[in-house]
Amino acid sequence: MKHARQFEYIVIDTGPRSSVDELRDLVGGCDLLVLPISPETMSLDALLQTPEALHGIGGTYRILLTLVPPSPSREGRTLLETDGLPVMRSSIR
Questions:
Q1: What are the contacts of 18-25 at 24+ separation with CB within 8 A?
Q2: Which residue range forms the structural domain that includes residue 66?
Q3: Could you give phi then psi for residue 80, rounded to 5 degrees?
Q4: Confidence band (pLDDT; 50, 70, 90) for 4?
Q5: How many separate domains does the chain show?
Q6: pTM of the model
């Protein structure tokens, strides 16, 4: 990623379950890792494995909720915040 410093933003799209080695490479080459996730139970279960892997690697990450139902639904957000995970204040409907 030696050319990464030439750009202000770089977006890398990966599969839903990156390996520890892939996560290590991603975290090593970025200032903030954004983990987009829909607030469905199956998606949340898969996501919860990623912060566990990132805990051992280090780096800064935030969770971005996507495909969110209209207000006042807090589906998914409450679960993630209760677990102490860093969830972005904004979400994508």
A1: 18/50, 20/53, 20/56, 20/57, 23/50, 23/53, 23/54, 23/57, 24/57
A2: 34-93
A3: -65, -45
A4: low
A5: 1
A6: 0.75
